[in-house]
């Protein structure tokens, strides 16, 4: 999953993207497939390499090249972290692209699950402000609020100490039904990789 040094030469400057399917939020023991794309995601590289920012948690595969996609199986907390990719061009296999933007792989189900509440309640009238509250009896440095429908990526919330645990609040004012959907809260422990999460069992339905 990690290469000790980038391949060379690396003169390509096309915008490179790294995608995870079905999601970058992966249950512990689950799987995720990574694709490296260029030209706004329209064409994937035939060959590509992966880099992990934290080198200490995943075995090192020197000069490993992947074809089309990479299936990450039986995911553990060690797989959590930030990844980047670099691809070679079909017309010039020895020419490599620039590194992609980072992609955070997040492993869920590692800690006890935080709770998610809607205050004053989950049934929201148009124009009414509702506060989503993530809380846990574990001290989490960060919480992440996720909605597959409403957020492009999970919202990053700073956890605050509360009653021996921690919590974070996020207020929204839904003016249309567009914010209706299921929300989940994830907590990040300061004792673990910052992208290791636990999945809430309290989804929020708003309408």
UniProtKB/TrEMBL annotation:
GO BP annotations listed: immune response-regulating signaling pathway
InterPro entries the record matches: Ig-like_dom_sf, Ig-like_fold, Ig-like_Receptors_ImmuneReg, Ig_sub, Immunoglobulin_dom
Compartments where located: Cell membrane
Keyword Glycoprotein applies: yes
Presence of the UniProt keyword Cytoplasm in the record: no
Protein's membrane topology: Single-pass type I membrane protein
Keywords annotated in UniProt: Disulfide bond, Glycoprotein, Immunoglobulin domain, Membrane, Receptor, Repeat, Signal, Transmembrane, Transmembrane helix
Superkingdom classification of source: Eukaryota
GO cellular component: plasma membrane
Main location (coarse class): membrane
SUPFAM superfamilies: Immunoglobulin
Family assignment from sequence similarity: Belongs to the immunoglobulin superfamily.
Entry protein name: Immunoglobulin domain-containing protein
Organism encoding this protein: Cercocebus atys
Lineage: Eukaryota, Metazoa, Chordata, Craniata, Vertebrata
């Amino acid at each position: 999953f990690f290469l000790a040094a980038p391949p060379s030469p690396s003169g390509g400057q096309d915008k490179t993207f790294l995608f995870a399917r079905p999601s970058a939020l992966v249950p512990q023991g689950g799987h995720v497939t990574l694709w490296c794309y260029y030209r706004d995601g329209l064409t994937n590289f035939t060959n590509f390499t992966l880099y992990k920012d934290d080198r200490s948690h995943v075995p090192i595969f020197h000069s490993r090249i992947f074809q089309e996609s990479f299936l990450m199986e039986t995911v553990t907390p060690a797989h959590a972290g930030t990844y980047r990719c670099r691809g070679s061009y079909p017309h010039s296999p020895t020419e490599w692209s620039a590194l992609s933007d980072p992609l955070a792989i997040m492993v869920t189900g590692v800690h006890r699950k935080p709770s998610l509440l809607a205050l004053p309640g989950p049934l929201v009238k148009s124009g009414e402000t509702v506060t989503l509250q993530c809380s846990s009896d574990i001290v989490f440095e960060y919480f992440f609020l996720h909605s597959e429908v409403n957020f492009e990526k999970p919202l990053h919330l700073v956890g605050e100490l509360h009653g021996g645990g921690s919590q974070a609040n996020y207020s929204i004012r839904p003016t249309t039904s567009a914010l209706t959907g299921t929300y989940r809260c994830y907590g990040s422990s300061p004792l673990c990789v910052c992208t290791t999460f636990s999945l809430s069992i309290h989804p929020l339905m708003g309408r």
